[in-house]
Amino acid sequence: MNGIHDMGGMHGFGAVDRRPDEALFPEVWQGRVCALAGYAMGAGLANIDAFRHAIERMPPDRYLSDGYYGRWLYALETLAAERLGADAAVERPDHMGSVVREIDREPRFAVGDAVRTWNRHPQGHTRLPGYARDRRGVVADVHPACVYPDTNADGRGESPEYLYTVGFESRELWGEEAEAAATVYIDLFEPYLEALE
Amino acid sequence: MTADHRHESDSPALRTEAIEALLVEKGLVRSAAVDALVERYEQDIGPLRGARVVAEAWTDPAFRARLLQDGMPAIRAAFRDSGGFGDNTDSHVARLVVKENTDTVHNLVVCTLCSCYPWAVLGLPPAWYKSPAYRSRAVREPRRLLGELGLDLSPDVEVRVWDASAEVRYMVLPQQPEDTDGLGVEELAAFVTRDSMIGVERL
Which of B19, B30, B113 sits opposite A80 (nearest CB)? Predict the structure, then answer.
């Protein structure tokens, strides 16, 4: 979805505030939320993709104001409200095992292949960042097939797809304002890609 | 329970208590287990693991080659005595990919869509890594961003930014500091900072 979470390339967020000795959890509730989310997902409240999508569905102002673990808290509340009602049953427990799956077809692309990303704006969850839509890149790595987040996030199943690391020249992404000698590598699922002649 | 039980005016601490009570009541979590996991995050899982991996790679070329080939199997085999880092802190991850810095290549890790981070070797991410400023800028203007953080890269150093948009996790293998040849793994590990393994520092 075209949401506030899709931050790559945005202007206006200022300087990075890198403090050397911050606490891992400055407030006690943040640590509890971190652990609660792990256990609740492991027990079947939601898979990792549905959890990320619950965060993305937050109102954008809350996404920015609630902070990292505040977003996790919001997502837990959303998923609990949607899934822990009187009649609702939790999903099959997600044992948080690896997302790698065996599939009975070969990868369409190989290292060195030129590809273009698709130009789609799905309302649901997807892992193609907006800044890399409809862009030309080169396959840099071929990974095993993995659970496809776009379908796994909303109950349509795992439908595993091959995963690729695709390198994009900075200029292809950012045009004339691009910095020199920079490449951005993004991990993209096979359906996002088409072969370039 | 109502369709949306969220009490917008409550503090995050109160809301956390409420959601914990609900998850316990529904049998999804036990509070004692939550206590134990928080303690583990705070005390056991941190960048020290990554630092030992880096130091090992600096001193053992065969391990370095295996690490760059496929991160987690190499680490599990090399650190078997300490459990191979085999806890389930990030177990849905497909691969750990380690990228080495050289005199002419600098690597930087980000996750623009959420804040994916190699928990298994670096622990939980620092606040700045999760900030909108870092997530938005690392892919568009990495050189300027690194310069603001005190790392001025020469124009002939190529920057490679790794946007961890799926379940592959990335860690940077920094270059070994000069004049540290002959030191042992434990001594070398003390030179390795968390931020050098994310790529916002060079040692």
Answer: B19
Distance from CA of A39 to the nearest CA of B (A): 6
Interface touch B163/A8, C-beta < 8 Å:
yes
Q: Which residue of A has its CA nearest to B34?
A: A35
Cross-chain Cβ contact B38/A35 below 8 Å? yes
Which chain A residue has its CA at the smallest distance from B70's CA?
Answer: A143
One domain for residues B181 and B105: yes
Q: What phi-psi label fits residue B64: left (phi over 0), alpha (psi between -120 and 50 degrees) or beta?
A: alpha
What size, in residues, is chain A?
Answer: 197
User: In this predicted model, what pLDDT tens digit does every residue of B5-43 receive, in sequence order?
Assistant: 566 679 999 999 999 999 999 999 998 989 998 888 887
- CA torsion sign for A165, A171, A177, A180 is positive
Give pLDDT tens digits for A87-115. Answer: 555 555 555 678 999 999 999 999 999 99
Touching check for A89 and chain B: CB below 8 Å? no
**Under 8 Å CB-to-CB from B30, ≥6 apart: which residues?**
A39, B24
Tell me the count of A-B CB pairs closer than 8 A. Answer: 240
Q: Are residues A143 and A83 in the same domain?
A: no
Catalytic member of B11, B31, B82, B114:
B114
| Out of B38, B140, B164, closest to residue A31 by CB | B38
- Of B83, B55, B88, give the one whose Cα is nearest residue B188: B55
Helices marked H in chain A: 28-42, 48-56, 60-83, 149-152, 170-174
Residue A146 — left, alpha, or beta (φ > 0 → left; ψ -120 to 50 → alpha)?
A: beta
Contacts of B130 in chain A (CB under 8 A): 68
> If pLDDT is split at 50, 70 and 90, which confidence band does B85 have?
low
Domain that residue A71 falls in: 1-95
pLDDT band at B60 (very low <50, low <70, confident <90, very high): very high
d(CA B42, CA B89): 13
Number of domains composing chain A: 2
CATH code: domain of residue A123: 2.30.30.50
Under a CB-based contact definition with an 8 Å cutoff, are residues A189 and A162 in contact?
yes
Please say if B136 is a catalytic residue: no
